[in-house]
Structure formats: structure tokens, C-alpha cells
Write a structure and sequence with these properties.
single chain; 132 residues; alpha+beta; 6 strands
Amino acid sequence: MPSTASVITLSPDPLGAYAISPGWKAGGLLFLSGQAAIDEQGAIVGEGDFDAQLEATFAAIDRVLAAGGSDRSRIIKVTIYLTDMANFPKIVEARRRYFTPPWPADTIVEVRALALPELMVEIDVIALASDG
């Protein structure tokens, strides 16, 4: 059986300026690039406000999932990057707000910095495609 993959596209594409695809659909799975608090025009959302950045990050995830024909309920794995692990309790809260059981597999790491210095959180996602 031949393997196929296709790029997920957005218009406008806030990641295009960085030579990054929003994600790929391959083998019944969606692989999203790390999503952060960047709006559709590429502007930072919620500078200095972790809660606002987290909300904007999930909005970005939802947008890419929808473009790939999926939704948040089909996420099976997330990797969360924080610039300050003091925000970990807010992540636990967010897991309950943005996901439902069965919970996605999850890895969380603290990093010194993200691609843009104003960003406080980034999340990458693996999800089932709607036909997966």
C-alpha cells in the first residue's frame, strides 16, 4: 500500500514567514508544528499573560486541526514546552478544560526560551485524522 502525506495549509498562514508548515497529514495521523500564542496575522497574543497565551495557543491548535479535517477530541499526544515550570499547575487545569477522557499522552518540558522571546508556552500535537 503506497504511503501518502499531504501538507495542512492555512490562509493566512502565520508560520509561513518562518518557513514552517502548520502540519502534515500522514497515515491517518495529523502532525502539527508547535503552536503558540500567534494570531492569524503572525502577531504575538497576550505578551506577559500566560493565561491569554495558553488560550491563544489552543485556538491556534484548533485552527490547524480544523484545516486538517480533525478536532481537539482526536488528539492522542501533546508535547508542552514552558519557559517557566511555575505555570505547571495552570497546565493541569488546562488539560481538564481543553481535553476530555481519555486524556492524550503528554510530555511537558521546561525550556530556557521559545522561538520568539515573548512566548511562554508552545504545544505540538499528534491527532487522528477524521478518516483515521
